[in-house]
Amino acid sequence: MATPHINAERGDFADTVLMPGDPLRARYIAETFLDEVREVNTVRSMSGYTGRYKGREISVMGHGMGIPSVSIYAKELITEYGVGTLIRVGSCGAVRDDVAVRDVVIGLGACTDSGVNRTRFGGMDFAATADFALTRALADAASDLGVAARIGNLFSADLFYDPRPETAELLKRYAIVGVEMEAAGLYGVAAEFGARAATVCTVSDHILKGDSLDSTARERSFDEMMEIALESVLRDDAAKGITS
Ligand SMILES: O=P(O)(O)O[C@H]1O[C@H](CO)[C@@H](O)[C@H]1O
Ligand SMILES: O=c1cc[nH]c(=O)[nH]1
To answer: How far apart are CA 64 and CA 19, in angstroms?
Structure first.
């Protein structure tokens, strides 16, 4: 039952999938945090794995960079593999003075310069918001772990290299907690196909100050965020009365 982009069988994915942009970050998460891991997707090297975290079956798969890429994977996971919950575990840039490299941010909503949600929403502006219960679970998990996460609007950019010099200052003025490239699209896909989505990101660079982590750090050093995401799944289960 493979799709053009995923060569897993139905049942290979858990009901909940953690999704980093980087497939090598997906592998790192699987190898570091999950037991009984098996690889479930190899197409285009967009590594996908299913394993267990504290007994709870969870999958992790890369979604690539940008809204077009995450939209393909999220849609296929929901409609072809029955996935109901998608949690993006990303990196992002900061624009605010009070958000620094390695801070954790949670995307309550996501602004964007992409047109995808207008396309799907009849030309109108869709408020791209995360699932409330999932977001609460992420916030509570962060609090439990002693992490002061920032919760607010992300900006999901179409262009990593934005040629407009004024954009970063505008985003700062609107208190954007992080600039990344997928959340608004992920929230739109989830709304269109009846799934739940949320986003947690670690700040990898400060766009206005110039601080930046290298690619290895972006792949392998966001353990605090991974623990928040994994623990949020258990919290969310408990809130729904589901146990593994
Ligand atoms: O590190 P990931 O999760 O890929 O997230 C961010 O990094 C990529 C750009 O470098 C974009 O995908 C952006 O959203
Ligand atoms: O999309 C991204 C990710 C990290 N930093 C940015 O500036 N943009």
So the answer is: 9
23 within 8 A of 90, measured Cβ to Cβ: no
Predicted model pTM: 0.97
Give the number of the atom of ligand 1 that is nearest the alpha carbon of residue 90: 3
Residues 101-152: tens digit of each pLDDT: 999 999 999 999 999 999 999 999 999 999 999 999 999 999 999 999 999 9
Q: Is 91 annotated as a binding residue?
A: yes
| Global ipTM | 0.98
Torsion of CA 56, 51, 201, 210, to 10 degrees: 150
Structure tokens at 92: 């992002």
Listed in sequence order, the residues at least 6 apart from 100 whose beta carbon sits closer than 8 Å to its beta carbon are: 94, 203, 206, 211
In DSSP notation, 166-216 reads THHHHHHHTT--EEESSHHHHHHHHHHHT-EEEEEEEEEEETTT--B--HH
Domains identified in the chain and CATH numbers: 16-240 (3.40.50.1580)
Q: Distance from the CA of 55 to the center of ligand 2, in angstroms?
A: 34
The span from the CA of 70 to the CA of 140, in Å, is 26
Ligand 2: does its nearest atom lie under 6 Å from the Cβ of 207? yes
